[in-house]
Amino acid sequence: MKSQITLTSLYKMKEKGEKIAVLTAYDYPFATMADESGIHIILVGDSLGNVVQGQKTTLPVTMDEMIYHTRIVSRAVKHAMVIGDMPFLSYQASIKDAIYNAGRFLKEAGAGAVKLEGGASVSELIKAISDASIPVQAHIGLTPQSVHKMGGFKVQRDEDRLMEDAIKVEEAGAFSVVLEGIPADISKKITDNLKIPTIGIGAGPDCDGQVLVLHDLLGLNLRHLPKFVKQYASLGEDARKGMKKYIEEVQKGVFPSKDHCY
Ligand code: KIV
């Protein structure tokens, strides 16, 4: 039987050079499949705003929605670490909000850790949450909750600032950091410079692990796919085919057949 992934297992993986595989999930069936497939971390990302709710940005996602999805995912997972993603405005306004909302992910939703976006500017919040015994994963580079400040979803190239952000979040007590939308050579330097594992998305091959949004990987996404995504399955195509066939068979009276009747 596979053992439960803990902070210690993640640090050991970095030490040994074993790559960490991370996926997002938002519901019971996919969380079960990801866990049974041997994924190390399941992130209940606020990307659910885009891929589940059909929003243009992650900004409208609420704490209660995140708790709802994280609770469902935690119920399914036996092996992976479950990380709950702190939505916009759940941590920025005060340390008190940040600790309280982070704590809700562990207390009400069964997560083992939380993630929040930002570097040096949120290091005080990371320290406070982590001091409250809540493991925190940081997220630097292209941070989707700052889309308006960044002027769009743009690759971040300011090496000094990115390095400073990475060092500050590590010093504040983050157990890991997501590097998003960062040129591969800068991500490598950050990864080599940190003791904590880096998890890349659009950040090249040298991070300690990789994360993808489940719907992108499985071909379930209705939006334009960014360059960094690799699609490993075409479930969307299969679903459409199945639905069309069902409609056709209902209309022709082929379904239900005798086999489907009592
Ligand atoms: O919300 C999310 O899914 C994320 C990952 C893409 C890192 O933040």
Commentary on this structure:
The chain is α/β, with parallel strands linked by helices and 262 residues long. It has two domains: 7-231, TIM Barrel; 235-262. The protein contains eleven helices and eight strands. An eight-stranded parallel beta barrel has the order 1-2-3-4-5-6-7-8, surrounded by seven helices. Helix 5 (95-107) packs across helix 6, helix 6 (123-131) runs parallel beside helix 8 and helix 8 packs parallel to helix 9 (184-193). The radius of gyration is 20 Å and the shape is globular. The mean pLDDT is 97. The structure holds 3-methyl-2-oxobutanoic acid. 3-methyl-2-oxobutanoic acid (KIV) binds next to strand 6.
Name of the CATH homologous superfamily of the largest domain: Phosphoenolpyruvate-binding domains
> Low-confidence parts, pLDDT < 50 over ≥5 residues?
none
- Classify the fold: give the CATH topology of the largest domain: TIM Barrel
**Assembly annotation:** single chain
How many domain modules? Answer: 2
| Helix and strand composition category | alpha/beta
Shape: globular
What is the average per-residue confidence, as pLDDT, rounded to a whole number?
97
Give the bound compounds: 3-methyl-2-oxobutanoic acid
Describe the largest sheet.
8 strands, parallel, barrel
Instruction: Please bin the fraction of helical residues.
Output: 40-55%
> What is the H/E string?
HEHEHHEHEHEHHEHEEHH
